[in-house]
Design goal:
Largest interface: A-B, 81 and 81 residues
Strand order of the largest sheet of chain A: 3-2-7-8-9
Number of domains of chain A: 2
CATH superfamily of the largest domain in chain A: Aromatic compound dioxygenase
Oligomer: homodimer
Helix content of chain A: 10-25%
Radius of gyration of chain A: 23 Å
Shape of chain A: globular
Largest sheet of chain A: 5 strands, mixed
Structural class of chain A: alpha+beta
CATH class of the largest domain in chain A: Mainly Beta
């Protein structure tokens, strides 16, 4: 019975039309989504004009999406939803390394690299030497862990954002493997803070709210190891000007690290004598044992 | 400060980033939207996989939209949001005619027609004679009111859905004008119940929920008159099998009317002797005075 509805009774009427949903979880999601969408609409007394603008916004967001650009993920990011989903399931604060959002620039087909390699590809910039270690919660090294790492260049651009310049090559990303001591290390170039894309519908929201689109300087990591929970995380440079106002809410205090500045003439962690200034950073990652 | 966030504290942190919104109403909408989106996400403990599916659904919905197909309006329709927005501002039950949703088939460039015209265009079907009257709340006729009307053919298709067959012509729609008695009348063909489009992402929801996509047989009206509030409404055929389970929740009891069946040999309301069976329907519409 979906007749004689009022602004109060329509919610239950719509929810009843989901009663025949065979997938119990889908049914729960539909019913609760309708509740919150309707509650919001009633609470703000959404007008027809505002509703029309919302429909138009969503259509344009959909049309902005491409295989290398997902405007709805970005919308979720700037509304704090992406991080919230992570925080619900990984509240953190325990003995294992905190997780955070994946971001839109992970690429499945990245190259593998040996420890110690320069993974910067063709990209020029201040050399950065990263040393990582992977342990279990008891402090035992995790050997053979697979470590995806990726980051921006010194102007805040990822390889996938400058494919013309890179002649279609990937850069500043690799899949490494930890040694018997649980260690992995590589050379690359120092990344930079950068704005999330603002030339699509999400840019209108940031602009209307006078919000900064900037993300602080960071390195991405995605760790996999047999018997452990996968860990998607990110290390943020401690002295970055945007560290406390990340546009997508992805910074966790436990993931803030120092990027140490070294002068020309010093020796890099891998023993290379350096004739230019460079940076170093390091971090130990603790993986959670997989739940059986 | 958007650091050290938890699944509980992130909501306020995100809301604070909208503090600089200059448009006060936009600020209210953003802040309340974030509250409800986050409450929903926490309440159902949305998983990363479900979140990813939602992003993918929204992208595909956006890509389904064309100038004659708005998948987000349809999504809003099947979730009861479109009617809710109307019910909030037009609760009905008073002396004026109830409003309901516009639907996706209204066309701005429709032809004008004289009262008594056959507006069916090239479309074959059971003749339908409609007589309408427009009054103010005191019962005084509203002369010179503009009445848009549009409906489907006998198989449930609108002209814009069969432009090839109609050689690009519009049909079963017109703009009429009330006479000094507030009357308007026309001849057309009887419409039919029909399904909302199910070949896009919204079809997946209806299918997952085992929901009917059907709308009951109806005529659309959009009335404008100097000094009165515009009225978007719809008359639904009382003996239609879907009258109590409209897929988009648009039926109001006060808008249900009888479509009377007449045998061949009877005389139509306009005095035409009919050699085939036909239908008649009538309705008085009461407009609200415009608020000053």
């Amino acid at each position: 019975m979906t007749i004689d509805l009022t602004a109060a009774s329509i919610t239950e009427a719509v929810q009843r039309t989901f009663e025949g949903t065979e997938d119990g979880r889908a049914k729960e999601l539909f019913v609760r989504l309708v509740q919150h969408l309707h509650d919001f609409t009633r609470e703000v007394r959404l007008t027809g004009e505002e509703w029309f603008k919302a429909m138009d916004f969503l259509e344009r967001a959909g049309k902005t999406c491409t295989p290398t650009r997902q405007e709805f993920v970005l919308l979720s990011d700037i509304l704090g939803l992406s991080v919230l989903v992570d925080l619900i399931h990984h509240p953190g604060g325990g003995s294992v390394t905190d997780s955070t959002l994946l971001g839109p620039f992970y690429v499945e087909g990245r190259p593998t690299a040996e420890n110690g390699s320069d993974i910067s590809g063709e990209v020029a910039g201040t050399p950065l030497f990263f040393n990582g270690r992977v342990l279990d919660p008891d402090g035992t090294p995790v050997a053979g862990a697979k470590v995806d790492t990726w980051h921006s260049d010194g102007e805040g651009f990822y390889d996938v954002q400058m494919q013309d310049k890179l002649h279609g090559q990937l850069a500043m990303r690799a899949l490494l493997t930890t040694d018997d001591e649980g260690r992995f290390w590589y050379r690359s170039v120092a990344p930079r803070y950068y704005p999330v894309p603002t030339d699509g519908p999400c840019g209108e929201i940031l602009s209307a709210a006078n919000r900064s689109p900037m993300r602080p300087e960071h390195l991405h990591f995605w760790l996999h190891a047999e018997g452990f929970e996968p860990l998607i995380t990110m290390l943020v440079r401690s002295d970055d000007p945007y560290v406390e106002r990340d546009a997508v809410f992805g910074v966790r205090r436990s993931l803030v690290v120092d990027f140490v500045q070294h002068d020309a003439g010093e020796t890099a962690p891998d023993g290379t004598p350096m004739d230019e200034s460079f940076q170093t950073a390091e971090r130990t990652f603790v993986l959670a044992h997989q739940e059986r």
